[in-house]
Amino acid sequence: MRRILGIALAVLLIGGVTAVIAIGGKKPEGTATKTVRGVIGSEKSEFFRDPDVVKALADKGYTVKTETSGSWAMDQLALKELDFAFPSSTEPATGIEEKAGVKGAQNTKPFFSPLVVIARANAAKVLTDHGLAKLNGKNSGTLLLGPFLKAAAEDRKWQEIQGGTSAYPELTGTVFIKTTDPATSNSGALFLATTSNVANGTTVVSDEAGIDRTAPLMKKLISVQGAMEQSTDGPFRAFISGSGEPLILAYESQVASLLQQKQDPGDMVVLYPDTTVNSPHTFIPISEKATELGSLLATDPKLRSLVVRHGFRPTEGVAEFNAATAPHTAYLNSGLTGLRQVSAPTVKVLMALAARAKE
Description:
Blueprint: H1 2-24, E1 34-40, H2 45-49, H3 51-59, E2 62-68, E3 84-86, H4 93-100, E4 108-112, E5 115-120, H5 121-129, E6 133-135, E7 140-143, H6 145-153, H7 158-161, H8 186-199, H9 208-223, H10 233-240, E8 247-251, H11 252-260, E9 268-273, E10 275-276, E11 280-285, H12 293-299, H13 301-309, E12 313-314, H14 318-325, E13 340-341, H15 347-357
Parallel strand pairs: 1-2, 1-3, 7-9, 10-13
Antiparallel strand pairs: 3-11, 4-11, 4-12, 5-8, 5-9, 6-7
């Protein structure tokens, strides 16, 4: 009798478990159901590591795993093994699509960030006092690329710019902006796009003659730097820690993120080049699993708010960015006023400039 009761109880228990699985055993809402892998520019790594971003993506059914690479080096990777690529601008996208076998993929540009030059306070003062920059206040201003490039062409040194004085002994050697490698990194490549435009009479370099005309100056801008990195992350962190060069090329997003996290910017001055090429981060779906992820980053309200928190400007979210960064206008040019927006050269021309600059 006991054995019969035991069997009956077991059957009931099994039936109960089955009912739980059938009725209430589905995955809790917000649990990711799809894992996608992709390659991103390092400036987005903190965004994808943010626990709030991880949760927001999981709520939409995604677990996102990333590796980093210079945007212009992504086409050298085994892209067909990935689900998406996310370079820092549109220019390298064509090569990435061709290598991945997804030419003509439906790209998304969910956010962008202009390039800035971050300067030590004394460096910004010297540049301003001698006509190479204009300050709007203590912590922000405009880099005047024409006069700056003239000084670079003449191999001017900090002491020479100061008229031979040594008021700031920490400023020594040739005046230059520390950038990333233009052959592999988006920010370095767009720095050449911008400076070559100014050096070419405010015209986009479009042919061999333009390359020949501007290449000597581009080489000076790059060769003076010595060893170069593929990512803006390293030079930016070095600057914030108090080391590094007095003038560093960075993305505005790195500055805006730092300020919103209430980290100490030290004596940082943010100089917006008066001629600039915007950097629309371009999401390229490689597999069907990642097709909708780019549009989610552009349209989902929660993800957009996190994009802004990490300093990026949503493509259709000017008001959101301005509201979030309103306490930090002493550093940021929210409206990008007074800046001349220019187009980048073709990929072929830009890579030719990079090659000539590194000869």
